[in-house]
Amino acid sequence: MPHRNTAPLVCDLSTLAVIRFSGSDAQSFLHNQLTCDVAAITPETSTYGSYCTPKGRMLATFLLWRPGDDFLMQLPSALREPIQKRLSTFILRSKVKATDASNEWIKLGLAGKGAAALIGRSFGRVPQAAHGVAHLDGSTIIRLPVDRFEIVAPKHKAPIIMESLAGEADMAEPEYWDWLDIRAGVPVITPATQEQFVPQMANLDLIGGVSFTKGCYPGQEIVSRTYHRGTLKQRMYLANLMVEERPQAGDKLYSTATGEQSCGMIVNAARSPGDGYDALAVIQIASAARGDVRWKSLDGPPLKLLPLPYQTERDG
Fold first, then answer.
1. Are residues 250 and 142 in the same domain?
2. DSSP letter assigned to residue 29
3. What is the pLDDT of residue 306?
4. Same domain for 38 and 142?
5. d(Cα 167, Cα 131) in Å, to the nearest integer?
6. Residue 237 lies in a domain
7. 281 Cβ contact partners less than 8 Å away, ≥ 6 residues apart
8. Is 291 among the domain residues?
9. What averages of pLDDT result for each successive group of 10 residues across the chain (316 residues)?
10. Is 316 contained in some domain?
11. Would you state the pLDDT for residue 231?
12. Which domain holds residue 273?
């Protein structure tokens, strides 16, 4: 993924889908379905969150924001239709409608040195805090953790926006944004990892994606019990694998502490600009502490654990 060291990087995020939730009951409906505090979202803020089964297992992770009265949920395209369909079955008499808004927007990611300054020159406003949101003439700028920005704009504005970025930013492959998500410690649930983790296993609670003070939602009892009883035995770690073959979401991990029984699973992986692949992996805390976690088998390639960019606690 070559690029100039001094130029911001812009990534096409068209592989991500967007569900629009509209109607007077949209806020209350989503608040009662999702792990995050939907009632606290304003047009100037965004949040990560997840949608769980009644057993507390995540079906999806997402980025959620509110450009006006509507709510927009961004998630992988492969999950858009099933998640929209499942949520729609619970609408019943609520005044809310879920629609596919993916094709209404262009979605671009901007990161690297000078990204904030370029946003300021191009749009005139820069969200100051992580998860801050700014709006300008129908476009939305979201500041994500680790000083990244997402630009969400009406499709007809694509030529103007690309012209404003041209010459000041280098284009990068979509996988580069996947890698930035990984380095930021932000998990993305895909079809291969649906129903595998409660939110805390994938650190959703550490990145603001879980509220422990809101009311009921699917899986809330199990998520809360795990939090209050301190029974969490697995956490998500950042790791590097020096391999040629790309690790896949859902690949199992092994440790001498668990023998032939898997001690964890790959959540996401992307090629590192350095070497090998960087990955987010949910691993048994005891196995991670031993430092002998391996990919696919007990004698497979080792995972080198790396520090995450946010504070983590290690529950035992």
1. no
2. H
3. 97
4. yes
5. 27
6. yes
7. 236, 237, 239, 253, 264, 265, 266, 267, 293, 303
8. yes
9. 68 96 97 98 98 98 96 98 97 94 96 95 93 94 96 93 89 95 98 98 97 94 85 94 97 95 98 96 96 97 97 61
10. no
11. 74
12. 191-306
Cα separation, 306 vs 113, in Å, equals 22
Apex 40 CA angle, 36 and 46, nearest 5: 70
Any idea what the Cα angle at residue 190 is, between residues 186 and 192, rounded to 5°?
Answer: 125
Write the single-letter amino acid at 158.
A
Q: Give the pLDDT confidence score for residue 5 in this predicted structure.
A: 56
- Copy the structure tokens of residue 157: 């504005």
The string of DSSP letters for 124-173 reads S----STTBEEEETTEEEEEETTTEEEEEEEGGGHHHHHHHHTTTSEEE-
3-state helix, strand, coil in the chain (%, to 5): 25, 30, 45
DSSP-derived secondary structure for 246-272: PP-TT-EEE-TTTTTS--EEEEEEEE-
**Residue pair 185/308 in contact by the 8 Å Cβ criterion:** yes
Tell me how crowded residue 142 is: count the other CB atoms within 10 A of its CB. Answer: 22
Q: Which residue carries 């606690």 as its tokens?
A: 313
Q: Are residues 216 and 160 in the same domain?
A: no
Q: What are the tokens at 145? A: 């953790």
**Structure confidence at residue 313 (pLDDT):** 67
Q: Tell me the one-letter amino acid at 261.
A: Q
Gyration radius from the chain CA atoms: 20
Distance between CA atoms of residues 298 and 97, nearest Å? 49
How far are the Cα atoms of 35, 58, 75, 178, 313 from residue 222, in angstroms, in the given order? 12, 12, 24, 30, 19
Prediction pTM value: 0.95
